[in-house]
Amino acid sequence: MKSGRFVFPRALVLFCALISLLAASAHGQVLADAGAISPLAVAKPGPGDGPVHIGTEKDLNTGDTAWMLVSTALVLMMTGPGLALFYGGLVQRKNVLSTMMHCFILMGLVSVLWAIVGYSLAFDAGTPFIGGLRFAFLREVGNAPCEYAATIPHTTWMAYQMMFAVITPALICGAYAERMKFSSMVIFSSLWLLIVYCPMAHMVWGKGGLFNASMGGSIGAMDFAGGTVVHISSGVSALICALMIGPRRGYGKVAMPPHSVVLAVVGAAMLWVGWFGFNAGSALQANSLASMAFVNTHLAAACGALAWAGVEWIKNGKPTVLGAISGAVAGLVAITPASGFTLPMYALIIGGAAGLVCFFSATTIKQTFGYDDTLDAFGVHGTGGTLGAILTGVFAVYVVNCPVGLDNAAKKLGLVEGNWTPVLHQLAAVALTWVLAAALSAMLLGILKSTIGLRVSEADEYDGLDLTQHGESGYNLEDGMSGEVGNGASSHG
Q1: pLDDT: is 342 or 402 the higher one?
Q2: 59-453+464-470 adopts what CATH topology?
Q3: For residue 404, which of 100, 185, 227, 269 sits 20 to 30 Å off, Cα-Cα?
Q4: Is pLDDT above 90 for 15?
Q5: Please, which residues have CB within 8 angstroms of residue 116's CB and are 6 or more apart in sequence?
Q6: pLDDT tens readout for residues 265-313
Q7: C-alpha distances out from residue 468 to 6, 239, 460, 461, 474, Å
Q8: What is the DSSP letter of 136?
Q9: pLDDT one-digit tens code per residue, 58-76
Q10: If we measure between CA atoms, which residue out of 165, 155, 159 comes closest to residue 233?
C-alpha cells in the first residue's frame, strides 16, 4: 500500500489474461461438442479412454442425487463460513479480514480453475500420476452418470469434487497467515492446485491412478474421503510454507493471542457439521455406507475433542476451549481416510489418538524446532492426516466397504484378517504424498520468492494485512462510538 494505491503485480495480470485466452479459444469447440454429443448418450470408449457415461437420466436415483447435492453444499460451507471463521478468529484483530479473504477468494478462484482444467487433470484417464484433458472446459460433463458415480449426474460428481479442491489450498493459508502477500497467495494457490492437488487426486481416486486399486491402479491404498489427497498434501505444504516464508516478526517474543475464540468456536462447529458431507457424502449414495461414515465421523470428532482438552487439563491444569475445538478438528482429519472402511469403536480410537498426537505436534514439536505454523495447519492436518492414513490400514474392516465387483480390488488392498499388507500400502501412499507435496511446494515458493516475493514489508506487517493488502478494517469500533453522548446523535447523522 503506497500513496493509497494498490500495486497489482504484472504476473497476476498475465495469469488472468492467460486464463481468459484459454477460455475464449475453447468456447467455439465446446459449443460444437455440445451440439454433436448429447450429454445423455452412452459414450463409446476407445483404448485408454477416461470415465465414460454409463447410462441416461433414467438411470439416476433422485435420493442419491439429493443427498449428493446437499453434501456438496456442506463441503462448500466448510470453507466459507466454516474455515474462514475458524482461521479468522485465531489471528490478530488487524488480520481477520485478510485471513477470511484467503478462504473466500479461493472459493471463486479454485472453482474457475477446476472447471477449466483441474477436473480433467484429476479424473480423466491418463498416466498413473495425472489425468488427461478430455474433460477440459467441462466437455462431456453432462447429466448422465459416469463410472465414478453410477446413480448421480456427472455434473453433480464434478461439483462435489470441486468443493474438495476448494478447501484444500485454503487449509494451507493457516501456515502463512498474517505475513504473506495477497498476490503471492493467489498465484501460489492456483499453481499448487494444478501441480500438487490434481495429480494427488488422480493417483488416489482417478481412473488408472497409482493408488486406485478399484479402477486399475497398480498399488492399492485406502483413502475414503481425502486423508492423503486433502490433509497430508495441504499439511506438508503448510510446513514448507512456514519454513520458507519465515516466522512472523516478534514471534516468540511478543504475545499474539487469538483475537476472538468465539469466532473460532463458531467456525469449528460449522466444520464439524460440514464434515458429514465431506465423509458421508463420499459414499456417493444415500445408503448404509454413508450412514457408517457419518457415525464414524461424529464419534472421532467427539473423542478428539475430549482427548486434546483432557491432556491440556492434565498438563496445564485447565482445559481450554481452543484446545477442545482443535481436538475436534484433529479427530475429523484423522478419521477422513478411514470413515468408510472402519467401525464406530475403531473410530473412537482413531479420533482419540489424533487428539493426543496432534496436541503434541502443535505444541512440543513446534516449540522444539521453532517454526511458525501460525494456525497449526501442519500440526493438525499434516500430522492428523498422516496418522489417520496409517491407522486406516490398521483398522480397515473388509465387510464395511466391499461392494459387488470389487473383490479383486479388496484382495489388492490386502483386506484379509491378520494381514499387514494394507499398512504397507498406506505407508507407501503417505511417503509419496509427503515427497511430492514438499518438493513441489518448495519449488513453487522458491520461484515466487525470487520473483515477486512472498511476504509483506515489515511496516505492512506491523500495520496489519487488512489495511495494507485490502484497505479495510474488520472492526470499525471507533466509528461506531463517534457522535455526542446523550443527545441521540449518531455517526450516520
Answers
A1: 342
A2: Ammonium transporter fold (1.10.3430)
A3: 227
A4: no
A5: 19, 22, 23, 136, 137
A6: 999 999 999 999 999 999 999 999 999 999 999 999 999 999 999 999 9
A7: 9, 25, 6, 8, 13
A8: G
A9: 779 999 999 999 999 999 9
A10: 165
Q: What are phi and psi of 400, to 5 degrees?
A: -70, -40
Q: How many residues does the chain have?
A: 493
Closest CA to 335 of 291, 379, 387, 400: 387
Nearest alpha carbon to residue 68 among 146, 159, 135, 145: 159
Cell of 274: 460440514
| Whole-number Å distance between alpha carbons of 146 and 446 | 39
pLDDT at 31 over 80: no
Q: How far is CA 404 from the centre of its chain?
A: 30
pLDDT, tens digit, 9 for 90 and up, residues 357-389: 999 999 999 999 999 999 999 999 999 999 999
DSSP state of 404: T
In single-letter form, the type of residue at position 110 comes to V
Cell 498406506 belongs to 426
- Find cell 482445559 and name the residue: 319
Structure-block grid coordinates of residue 101: 479473504
Q: Which of helix, strand or coil describes residue 2?
A: strand
Q: Which residues pair with 149 in a beta bridge?
A: 146
Q: Are the CB atoms for 383 and 334 separated by under 8 Å?
A: no
Checking 323-328 for CB contacts under 8 A at 24+ apart, the result is 323/359, 325/86, 325/264, 325/265, 325/268, 325/269, 326/268, 326/358, 326/359, 326/362, 326/376, 326/380, 327/354, 327/355, 327/358, 327/359, 328/268, 328/272, 328/301, 328/302, 328/304
Q: How far apart, in whole angstroms, are the C-alpha atoms of residue 62 and residue 66?
A: 6
Taking the CA of residue 208 as centre, how many other CA atoms within 13 Å lie in the half-sphere pointing to its CB? 17
Q: Are 141 and 57 in contact (CB under 8 A)?
A: no
Tell me the C-alpha distance between 228 and 179, whole Å: 27
Joined together, the cell numbers standing for residue 142 give: 453432462
Rg (CA), the chain: 23
Round to whole Å and give the CA distance between 347 and 303: 9
- What the block records as the C-alpha cell of 94 is 488487524
DSSP H helices, 37-181, are 62-77, 84-90, 96-113, 119-123, 154-176
Q: In the structure grid, which three cell numbers stand for residue 207, read together?
A: 481412473
- Residue identified by cell 470413515 is 339
DSSP three-state, residue 8: coil
| Residues paired with residue 455 on neighbouring β-strands, in sequence order | 180
β-bridge mates for residue 2, sequence order: 5
pLDDT at 485: 45
Average pLDDT over residues 86-107: 98
Taking the C-alpha atoms of residue 173 and residue 189, their distance in angstroms, rounded to an integer, is 9
The helix/strand/coil state of 329 is: helix
Query: Which residues 6+ apart lie within 8 Å of 210 measured at CB?
Result: 128, 129, 203, 217, 218, 219, 432
Q: Which amino acid is at 95?
A: N
